[in-house]
Write a structure and sequence with these properties.
Order of helices and strands: EEHEHEEHE
Helix content: 25-40%
CATH superfamily: Cation efflux protein, cytoplasmic domain
Structural class: alpha+beta
Mean pLDDT: 81
Shape: elongated
Strand content: 25-35%
Largest sheet: 4 strands, mixed
Low-confidence stretches: 1-6, 47-57
Distance between the termini: 46 Å
CATH architecture: 2-Layer Sandwich
CATH topology: Alpha-Beta Plaits
CATH class: Alpha Beta
Radius of gyration: 17 Å
Number of strands: 6
C-alpha cells in the first residue's frame, strides 16, 4: 500500500500565503513512527512495495494509507510483527506513536489510526553446526 493523495492540509495566513501538507508527508511520518516500535519487523506494502524494494528504492510510505482532511487525518498502517510479542501491545504502541508524531509535526488531528497486522515474522533459523 502506498499513500493515496486524497487531499492536503492547507493552513492559510492572509499576510504570508498558504502551507499545504500532502498526504505523502503524513504517510512518511506515520511509517517512520510505526517502524520504530519494538516488535514491528516491517511494513506490509503489497506487491508494489515488494517490487520497489527489489529495485533498491526505499519507499517510506510503504504499508501506510492516509486520508487527509482540512484539519484531520485517517491513517491505516499495515504491519508485520515479530513472533513472540504481544500483538495487541505492539498495535497499541504503533497507534500512540503515529498519533503523537503526526499531530506534533503537522498539527493535524489524527482522528482514526487503524493498525492491520498482516503477518508474523519468525526468527531466522541458524543451520546446525557441523563438527
Amino acid at each position: 500500500m502506498s499513500a493515496d493523495i486524497i487531499e492536503e492540509k492547507i493552513v492559510e495566513d492572509s499576510n504570508i500565503g498558504t502551507v499545504k501538507i500532502a498526504s505523502d508527508v503524513v504517510a512518511t511520518i506515520a511509517g517512520l513512527a510505526a517502524s520504530k516500535i519494538a516488535g514491528v519487523t516491517g511494513m506490509s506494502g503489497g506487491v508494489a512495495g515488494g517490487i520497489a524494494e527489489l529495485l533498491g528504492r526505499k519507499n517510506l510510505t510503504k504499508g501506510v494509507k492516509v486520508v487527509v482532511g482540512e484539519e484531520d487525518a485517517t491513517i491505516d498502517a499495515y504491519i508485520i510483527v515479530e513472533y513472540g510479542t504481544s500483538i495487541t501491545k505492539v498495535a497499541t504502541e504503533v497507534q500512540e506513536s503515529i498519533k503523537e508524531a503526526v499531530e506534533t509535526m503537522t498539527g493535524l488531528n489524527a482522528t482514526s489510526i487503524n493498525v492491520h497486522v498482516q503477518g508474523v515474522a519468525f526468527p531466522q533459523e541458524q543451520p546446525p553446526e557441523t563438527e
